[in-house]
Amino acid sequence: MEESSGQKRKRIIVYGGLCLIVIIALCIAAWGSGIGNAAEGDSKNKEISADEVIIPASSSSSITYTSNMQKGGVPPGIYQGLVIKDLNGTFDPALAESWDVSADAKTWTFHLAKDALWSDGVPFTCADVKFTNDYLKSNNLTLAFVLNDVQSIECPDDSTAVITLKTSYSGFLDQISRQPGITISPQHIWQNITDPQHYEDEKFIGTGPFVFDQNTAGYARLLKNDAYYGKKAQISGVVLKVITNPDSQVLALKNGEVDVVSDISPAVAKSLDGEKNIAVYTVKDTGAYEVAFNLAQYPANITAFRRAISHAVDRDTISSLFGTGRPTETTFLIPSLAGKYVNPEDVGMYTYNLTEAREILKNSGFTWDGKGLLLGPDGNVVTLTIPLGTKGQASGGNQKIVSVLKNDWEKLGITLSTVSYDDQKQYKKAINANAVFLDSFPVTLHDDADALTNFAVTPLQDTNYYNYNNPEYNALVAGIRNTADQTKIMSMAYQMQDILAKDIPTVPVCTSDTIVAYRSDRFTGWDLGQGYYSVTDPRVLTNLIPVK
Amino acid sequence: MIDGHYLLRRIGYSGAAFVICVTLTFFILHLMPGDYITNYLLSISNYLPQEAVDQFYQQYGLDRPLWEQYVIYVCNILQGHWGYSYQYGLPVFPMIMQKLTWSLVILLPAVLLGIAIGIVLGAWSGWKSGGKKDLALFNFMIVFRAIPEFWWAIMAVWVFAFSLQWFPLGGFTSISVLSSGLNPWDVLYHAILPICLLTSFIVAGNYYVMRNSMIAVIGEDYITTARAKGLDERAVLWRHALKNALLPMVTMTTFQVAGIIMGSVFIETVFSWPGIGLLTTDALRMRDLPILEGIFLLDALMTIGAMLAADILASHLDPRIRMGDQ
Amino acid sequence: MSLLEIAGLSVQFEGRDGTVPVLDNIDLEINSGDRVALIGESGCGKTVFGMSVMRLLPSNARVTGSARYAGRDLLLADEREMQQVRGKKIAMISQNSASVLNPVLTIGDQIAESLTIHTSCRGKDLHREVIALLTSLGIERPEENMQKYPHQFSGGMRERILIAMALACNPDLIIADEPTSGLDALVKAQILELLRTVMQDRTLLLITHDLGTASALASHTAVMYAGEIVEYGPTQELFTYPLHPYTQGLIAASPSAGFHPIPGVSPAPGQVPPGCWFCPRCTCATDRCSTGHPSLKKTGTNRQVRCLRYD
Hints:
Largest sheet of chain C: 8 strands, mixed
Helix content of chain A: 25-40%
CATH architecture of the domain at 2-33 and 40-79 and 216-310 in chain C: 3-Layer(aba) Sandwich
Strand content of chain C: 25-35%
Largest sheet of chain A: 5 strands, antiparallel
Number of helices of chain A: 15
Shape of chain C: globular
Strand content of chain A: 15-25%
Strand order of the largest sheet of chain C: 6-7-8-3-9-10-12-11
Number of strands of chain A: 21
Oligomer: heterotrimer
CATH superfamily of the domain at 2-33 and 40-79 and 216-310 in chain C: P-loop containing nucleotide triphosphate hydrolases
Largest interface: A-B, 69 and 68 residues
Radius of gyration of chain C: 20 Å
Helix content of chain C: 25-40%
Shape of chain A: globular
Structural class of chain A: alpha+beta
Structural class of chain C: alpha/beta
C-alpha cells in the first residue's frame, strides 16, 4: 500500500498517541499501588508491622478453611490440643499441663492450664474438652473418628479432665496429637451452632499463642496472643501468603517478600548458598521410604522370597540418589527419632548382597530358565508390578527407588514394572492386588512403639497394608496397648522388632531430610532441630526473634 | 437474520442440551473412581477409619442408589440449591462466584484484548501476506508458539518481576491489603503481567486463524470489485475483507469467551492467582463432587449460551445464514 | 478523439519457474463513443487485459508498454491517482456476478460506495441517487431491494446491480468482462438489450468469448489469440468478412453457425510455437507460417490482421 507522507505522519501520531495513553494508564496504576519504591525490597512490607513473619502457603486451600470442627490443619497456633507431640517421641504440654495414666492405660487424667483463655476472653475449662468430644460425636462430624476410643470425659473440676477409654490404649496421646489430631473448641461458641457441617467460622476463637486476624485476597494473618498463658510469641504476627509456584516462593524469598521457604530441593539450597541475608538449615529424617510386601500375594507370601529381596535392595545407592537421604540403619522406627524404642541389638538383616539373595532363592525352590529369568516354585516366570500412589511421587522419590530396584532385580531374573495411580482408592486396591509396593510417610508415624501396630491385626484393625498376621506379634501389640509402663512397652517393642526382622513384611529403605531457607536479616530462631520440620509449628513460631 | 419462533425453538433445544449436560456431568462425576472421604482421610491419617467413611456416605446420601441421588440432585438444581462443598462445607455457588470473580479480573481483559488484537494483527498480516512485515510477524508467532507457554510465563516473572521489579511476583494484591484494605489499582497492577501474558497467548492462537481466513478472503472476486470502485486499500481491508474474514472467527472467539469459566490453571499457578482453574483442579483431585458439578453446570450454561450467541452473531455478520424457516 | 490509447502493452507473470508471458505487445485505441469488443477463447488473456488497464493485477504481474488515458499513462500513475481513475473515470463490470458482489454488504451500500468515494453526494441525495440508478436499470421496488444482500437476487438481477455500480459515477469508459456469462438465454437477451440501451452514448470495452454479445453491442471488435491481437475491424465487417483463419474458425464454432470447433487447443502461455502462433491449428497453414511470426498489418481502410496471407 502506497501512502503519502502526510497520511503516514497522521498514522504515527495516532499510534503514538495510543501508546502514550497505555503508558500513562500503567503509570497511574503503578503510582496508585505505590511501586515507586518497589525496588527497595523490604519497604513493600512497610504498612504491616516489621516483626510479622511472612510465610508462603502453596495452595489457597491451606488458608481457606471453615472451622477446626470440620477439618484438621487449621492455621498454626490458633487452636491447641491437650498435648503436643515432642521431638523425642514424647509429649509436650499444651492445654494440659500434666497428665496421669492408669496402669491399664484406660483412664487418662489431664491437669489443665489454669489461666488459659479463649481469645474472646472467656476462660478455658474442662467443660470445653468434654464439649468437643460430645459435640463431634453427636453431630457425626468426620473428625470424631480420632476420638473413637474415648468412652467418656468427666470434669471433676474446671481444670481437670478425666478421659475414660473403651479399651486400654497406651498410644492415646499419640492418637490425639498427631495429624489430624484433636484441638479443643470453645463451647460458648459452638453450643449455639446447629449445623456445624455448613458453618463458616469467621472468628476462629482459640487458645493458642496466635489469634486470627483476617483472611483476605490471598493472605491470612494471625496476630500474637498477648493474653496467652504459655510462652508468648516474640513476633507480632504471622502472615500466610499464597504463592502457588515453588520457584516463585524462592524468588519471593530472595526479594524479601517472604521470610522463609520450606521443602526446597538440594539444588535450590545450593543455589541459595552465599546469597546475602539468606540462611539454610536442614531438618534431618523428616521422611522415610520402604519397599513393602503384600503377604497375601504370591510370591511375597513366601518368607524366603521376602528375605532374598531384603538383600537385593541397595539402600546406599538409593539414599545417595535422594541428595539429602541416608539409609535407615535399622528397622521400622527411625533411630534418631524413636530413640530408646529402637532395639539396640539390631540383627542387621538387610545388607545388600545379591549373591546371598540368589542363594536364598535357589535354596527355596526358585530356579532360572535358559534366558536367566527367575522361575517360581510353581514353575512360572516371576514378574512384579509395583503400584505407585501420589505419595512420594511429587519429589520423584518413588522413581529413584524403582530405578535402582529394576537394575538389581533384573540381575536376579525378575522383571519389574510400575503402574501409577492418582486416586487413593484405586491405589489401595492395586496394593491389595500386587506383591510389592512402595510407601513413603512422614517420620512422625515411626517414632514410637505405637507405630509398630501398623503391622498388627487387632480388634480395631482387622487387616493392615501388608496383610501381615502373626499371632505372636499381635499379642505383643495388644500388650503394648494395654499398659502404660514404659519399661514393659520398650521390652515388648524390642521383641516385635525381632519378629519383624525375621518375617520381613517390609524393607525400610532410607530417610530423607527437609531443607528450609530463611531470611537471616529478619528473624532468627527457626532451627529448633530434628523433629520440628514444619515452619508453621507453633513452637517454631513462638521461638522466632526479630533481628532488629 | 433471525425470527422469533425460531429463537424460541432454539432456546428450547438449548434447554434440552442443558439437561443432557447436567445428566452426563452427574453420572460421569459419580462413576469416576475414588471419592472425597477416602482421599481426605488417607491424606491426614495412615489408616482408613471405615466408620468415618460410612458416616460420610450416609450424611451426603452417597449410599443411596445412583438414580435416587440423581433425582435428588436434579430437584435441588431446579430449586437453585447447588449443594455444599465436601472440603469446605460451604455453599458451592458463592464459592465458585468468588473464585470466578478473581479469575475474571485476568481472563476477561485478556480474552477480549486477545481476540481484538489477534483479529487486527491476523487481518493485517493476512492482508500483507507474503510481504516482509507479514513474514516477520508470522515467523515471530511461530517461534512464540513453539516455546511452551509455561516457559514464557516463568521467564516473564523472572525478567519483569524479579530482575527488573517492574511488576510483583504474583498474588492478587500487595501485603498492604491487610492494613489498608483492597485497593483496585493495586489489584490491577498485580494483574497486568498475567493479563499481558495470557493476552499474547490468545493473540497468537487467533492470529493464525485470522491470517488464514484473510488470505482466503483477499483472493475473492469481490475484493477486486471493491478495488475497481476506487476504494483505497484500508477501506478495502476494513470494509470489505474484514467482515468476511471474521466469519470463521465467530465460533472460535465466542467459545473462547465461554471458556473463561474454566479459568487458566497455569496462569493461576505461575502468578499465585488462585481462581476458578485451581479450584477445579483441586476439586478434581479431592473428588469434591458438588464443586465440580457446580463448575460444570456453569460451564454448560456458558457453552450453550455461547453457541446461541455464536449463531446470532454469525447471522448478523453473514446475511446468507438465515436462522429459521430454511 | 482517442480516449484510451494502448500501445505495446505486454504482461508477464513472475512465477516460481520464471516468468510467463500472458499478453504480448497489444496496441488498441478506443475513441470516445466507441464500443470495442475484445473476443477470444478462454485463457487468451482478455480478462488480464482489462485488469492491466485498471492496474488491478496481482503484484507478481510485470506490465510494460503504455495505456494513455486522457493523455496520462495509467501504467505510470501511482496508487492514489489510480484510485481516482477507478470507478470514477473507468468502471468495470466484472464477470461472474455470484462472487464479485460482497456477500455481507447490502447492494444499496455497495452501489452507494462508489458515489461516496468519488462524489460529494451524501445522505438523502445519495439514497435518491441509488434509487434512481436501480430504477433506471429496471430493478423493481428499489427502496426494498437496496436493503437486500446479493444472495437474495437472481443472476440477471445481480448483473443489473453490477451495471448500476459501474454506471454510478458516470464514468468515461466502462470495461465489461463477460457481462452475460452464466445467464440463461431469455435473461441474457434482456441484459443485452439493457446494455445496448445504457451504453448507447457511452464508451465501452467489452470482453467476451461470445460472438453474439460482441455483435450485439460492439462497434469495433478485436480478436485475441494466445495473448496477442490477431484481427481488428468494425464489428459488422469483421463478422461478415473475417480475414484471419482464427476469426473464421471462431465464427464457424459459434452455435448459430453449426458449432464446428477449431481443432487442437490454444498454446499454454509461454509455450507458443515459432512462427505464427495459430499455425498448428490453422487449416490454411503453409511452410512459411511455421517460421516467420507475422505482424499486425493494416489491410483495406479500417481493418488490421496478423496473417502472412495478407502480406
